[in-house]
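Ticket closed. Logging final result for Signal transduction histidine-protein kinase/phosphatase MprB.
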Amino acid sequence: MRLRARLALAFALLALVPLAVVVLPTLSRLRDTLSRELDARMQAATASAQESLERSATTARRAVEELVESPAMEDLAREARERPTRAIQAGTAEALMKTRGLTVLALFDRGGTVLSSGHLPARRGDPDPALFAVTRETSSKPVPVRVDVRTSSGLRQMPALVTARPVDYGDLRLWAVGGVLLDEGLAQHLARLTQAQVTLVSGDAEFARAGTALPPTVSREVPLGEAATVKLVFSRAAAREAEEGVMRAFLLLAGLGGAFAVLLGLLVSRWMTRPVEALTEGARRVAEGALDVQVTAVASGEVGELVRTFNHMTSEMRATTERLVASERIAAWQEVARRLAHEIKNPLTPIRMSLETLLAAQEARHPRFPELFKESAGVVLEEVDRLRRIVDEFSRFARMPKPQLAPVDLSELTQSVLALYSTPPEGIRILPALQTGVVARVDRDMLTQVLVNLVKNAEEAMAGKGGDLRVRVKGTDADAVIEVEDSGPGIPAEHRARIFEPYFTTKEGGTGLGLAIAARILQEHGGKLEVGGEPGLGARFSIVLPRSEGMGISAPVPVS
Ligand code: ADP
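Final structure:
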């Protein structure tokens, strides 16, 4: 992963981690608080439901007590002692029940037969053991029981809170059993009170329901003996919504924060990595040999220091290289001078000897002095000629004029050089392969001199035995190349490093300056001369020049 991406990621993490560290515990605390709050609400609601049931029971008890102690009841009892069937009729209990605000009331005789029933008038004359059982309760509080009632859908059992009180008149004993039905009305009252959904359940049957509770829900049960259970269902929707709201806010924050952090990370890393990247690029270019690289990226602190050090290092390297090159050049010239002196010394010995011979002959008045003189003068002249040649060659080498550059089509130039060899020596075949349109800016005369030299060397290498001389012109994107390849003996490995040295020659009468001059010419052109080929199989010399864009030359000049 690149430094830039890593930094952006680090920034994003840096933004998200604290957010997560803050939000996740907050969320869990919020959940706790909400559920505690719900618990408390449920507890309170359950308590108030219980209270409300209690109150209903108390009201029912009072109503029954007041009823049995009322003068109306006393009158009824008295009359019933005398004429029971007339005094207590089917509607009697209903009238009493309604005036007292009760929903259950039955008048029993001592034996448990219903004399009159307010909630189920049809029961008159029949026993109702379930309801009559309440008379045996020891507690004065109402108890939950199931009571038969007539509803629109027929006879039904419904839970009720009922209590029983005796009514005595002389030897007559009646029982008044009354209370309140746990019905729809109660459920609605409880639902309003608790904000929950209230269901009254008896056994498996649900007989009243009021209020609503959106899911998700939790429920509580308030048992009322065996007769019934009040089920309270509370909604957790509001709490859930609050949690989700916080979660949404967190996600939004995380998304925005993350995006912002990544953006910031990218910006910062760009700002931070730009000098580093510039340095990397600079180092790469130095490795490729460009010593004058200077990094211009603006940076402060340690990176700025690094940039300054890098720039200092490259300029130092450049200076050092220049010094090295200069001292190498001096050393090379010293070598040239040494060899030149050696070359000059060689003809001096025969000249001196000739002159000494002449002087001795003249002193001795040698009879063959005239012939000796002629002979010696010939030697001296010959050696002087050799000296002049040496000096001429040297001055050609030393006085390298500045090349006059102009765009030249290399295949055209090569063709004109090869035209000089239209009749090659015996056994030598010249095989040109010239790509057209390969153009370089060169000094035409100088490049011709180089090429002539390479072709001449190739021919000399194959002299006697014969062989193939391949001359190619080819271009890459950056380079323009002329190759001269022969099938001669090639260059032994131990000579390879030396063939470009001035005065290195393996030939009888060779000057050893041809390749040295060619290499210098190409150097002046910003190009180079490369040597290749296999010893024993042939030599290959490549002229490599910087290629320049076309100059309108496309058609090759025909070979003359
Ligand atoms: P000269 O031709 O006067 O010897 P050069 O500088 O042209 O001087 O060549 C130097 C030496 O390089 C030659 O003497 C020879 O040994 C070697 N050389 C040059 N060209 C070739 C070639 N095509 N095949 C083999 N050897 C070569």
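Residues 453, 457-458, 461, 486, 488, 491, 495, 499, 504-507, 510-516, 539 surround adenosine-5'-diphosphate (CB under 6 Å). No further action required.
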